[in-house]
């Protein structure tokens, strides 16, 4: 009996072990695995009927490739936000919305200045002349090229922060381009308006460093927004050439405005006295385009903008051409009795309206005027610390000019002088200058004048008087016809009166 009892006990023990192995296997399949792939231990004791404990804090799931890519983009945005010195930007890429009007107006045709257009194939021929300019400077001054490279190297970080976007040039290539372009520009400035090219050591037959036809194309390229280098780099290079301990305190700016003076949109010739009195650097000159713009607006206080046209605009800055309408066209203003006169001043933007007479200074339009105005407008659109004076003027003239008849009359009054093919091209030029331009009509220096002009236009008596003058006093024959009609009317009335008078009071 003892042996049988032990055998039964052994069987129950084996059955219990088998049952425990089965329960352990089933629990292992139902529980989540750890990152190592092993199931967490489940302590189960014989006779324990409680359910196995659940994992209340499961580990976070691994990121999918989509989430990983989003995290990478956010990291790039964070780095861009930290590395982009927005406050120091002064040389911009022209926005695509402005480029759609005329791509060629923003791209240099002969010489590249700065890193944006450095690799354009058609501009590579001028690179040889840049190296010739550097050779002339080193030969003339006796300096080693390392002096200029080291000086500009110390300004590299400051210069890079002036350009919008990432510059895909190594440190050495970027410094080399600044030195080459800067020396080239200074040689042009000093040769054209300074000592002269012959004094600097160039032949009178030089294809670039001489007063010839290519100089005008180079001047036009130097006022393009994407074709600039910072002014402080030019100051430093000129200071080294002249062996000055400090920067040249506006000398480069004064040379630049004299060199670019032929591009002025009027017939005023800047003399050296005017250039010496004007110091753009004292006002924070940034580059050649900024200096040229400051020279355009150099004298005379501009009227303070006045908030107006509330019924036309619910927002300040708009790009809808219908809401950029400040004034009516020339033909409509003439019908309202407004007269046009040429104002004798060299400030082409200085427009005046008094007693029904709109006085506009003379504007000279040539083949480079479109590119000039487009780049000035683009700079005012991009640079937040810049006023919109040039944009305001161009939009005002665009409002005045709707057709070739408007251009013809302004030309007749001596206000517009152009070298283009016909008057229709001038009208088309102004009508396309401000496409996609964001303009604040409440921040224009011409807002007060436009308000006065519209008030005069909306006065009915002025329109009636002008209509009478145009119909009956426009030429001598019309005046004679009017006088004859009045005399005939008077005689007819007199004849009628005496006929009636004689009927009722016959003579005795």
TrEMBL record:
<keyword id="KW-1133">Transmembrane helix</keyword>
<feature type="region of interest" description="Disordered">
    <location>
        <begin position="27"/>
        <end position="63"/>
    </location>
</feature>
<feature type="compositionally biased region" description="Pro residues">
    <location>
        <begin position="50"/>
        <end position="63"/>
    </location>
</feature>
<keyword id="KW-0812">Transmembrane</keyword>
<dbReference type="InterPro" id="IPR004158">
    <property type="entry name" value="DUF247_pln"/>
</dbReference>
<dbReference type="Pfam" id="PF03140">
    <property type="entry name" value="DUF247"/>
</dbReference>
<protein>
    <submittedName>
        <fullName>UPF0481 protein At3g47200 isoform X1</fullName>
    </submittedName>
</protein>
<feature type="transmembrane region" description="Helical">
    <location>
        <begin position="477"/>
        <end position="504"/>
    </location>
</feature>
<keyword id="KW-0472">Membrane</keyword>
């Amino acid at each position: 009996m003892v042996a049988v009892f032990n055998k039964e006990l052994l069987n129950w023990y084996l059955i219990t072990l088998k049952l425990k192995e089965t329960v352990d296997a089933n629990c292992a399949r139902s529980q989540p695995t750890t990152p190592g792939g092993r199931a967490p231990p489940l302590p189960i004791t014989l006779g324990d009927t409680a359910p196995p404990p659940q994992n209340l804090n499961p580990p976070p799931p691994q990121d999918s490739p989509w989430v990983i890519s989003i995290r990478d983009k956010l990291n790039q945005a964070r780095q861009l936000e930290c590395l982009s010195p927005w406050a120091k930007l002064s040389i911009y890429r022209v926005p695509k919305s402005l480029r759609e009007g005329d791509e060629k107006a923003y791209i240099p045709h002969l010489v590249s200045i700065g890193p944006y257009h450095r690799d354009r194939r058609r501009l590579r021929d001028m690179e040889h002349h840049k190296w010739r300019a550097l050779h002339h400077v080193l030969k003339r001054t006796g300096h080693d090229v390392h002096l200029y490279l080291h000086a500009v190297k110390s300004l590299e970080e400051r210069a890079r922060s002036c350009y919008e976007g990432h510059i895909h040039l190594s440190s050495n290539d970027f410094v080399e381009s600044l030195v080459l372009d800067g020396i080239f520009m200074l040689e042009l400035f000093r040769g054209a308006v300074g000592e002269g090219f012959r004094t600097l050591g160039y032949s009178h037959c030089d294809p670039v460093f001489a007063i010839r036809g290519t100089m005008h194309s180079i001047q036009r390229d130097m006022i393009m927004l994407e074709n600039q280098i910072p002014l402080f780099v030019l100051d430093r290079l000129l200071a080294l050439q002249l062996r000055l301990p400090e920067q040249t305190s506006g000398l480069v700016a004064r040379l630049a405005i004299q060199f670019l003076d032929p591009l002025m949109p009027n017939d005023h010739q800047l003399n050296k006295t005017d250039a010496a009195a004007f110091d753009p650097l004292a006002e924070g000159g940034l580059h050649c385009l900024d200096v040229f713009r400051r020279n355009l607006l150099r004298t005379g206080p501009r009227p303070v903008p006045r908030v107006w046209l509330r019924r036309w605009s619910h927002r300040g800055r708009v790009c809808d051409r219908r809401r950029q309408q400040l004034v009516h066209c020339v033909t409509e203003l003439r019908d309202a009795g407004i007269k046009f006169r040429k104002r004798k001043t060299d400030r082409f933007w200085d427009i005046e309206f008094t007693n029904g007479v709109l006085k506009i200074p003379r504007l000279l339009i040539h083949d480079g005027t479109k590119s000039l105005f487009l780049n000035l407008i683009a700079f005012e659109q991009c640079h937040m610390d810049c006023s919109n004076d040039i944009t305001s003027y161009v939009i005002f003239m665009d409002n005045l000019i709707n057709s070739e008849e408007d251009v013809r009359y302004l030309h007749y009054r001596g206000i517009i002088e152009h070298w283009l093919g016909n008057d229709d091209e001038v009208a088309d030029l102004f009508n396309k200058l401000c496409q996609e331009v964001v303009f604040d009509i409440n921040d224009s220096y011409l807002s007060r004048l436009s308000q006065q002009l519209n008030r005069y236009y909306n006065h009915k008596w002025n329109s009636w008087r002008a209509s009478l003058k145009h119909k009956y006093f426009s030429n001598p024959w019309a005046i004679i016809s009017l006088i004859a009609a009045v005399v005939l009317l008077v005689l007819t009335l007199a004849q009628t009166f005496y006929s009636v008078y004689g009927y009722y009071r016959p003579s005795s």
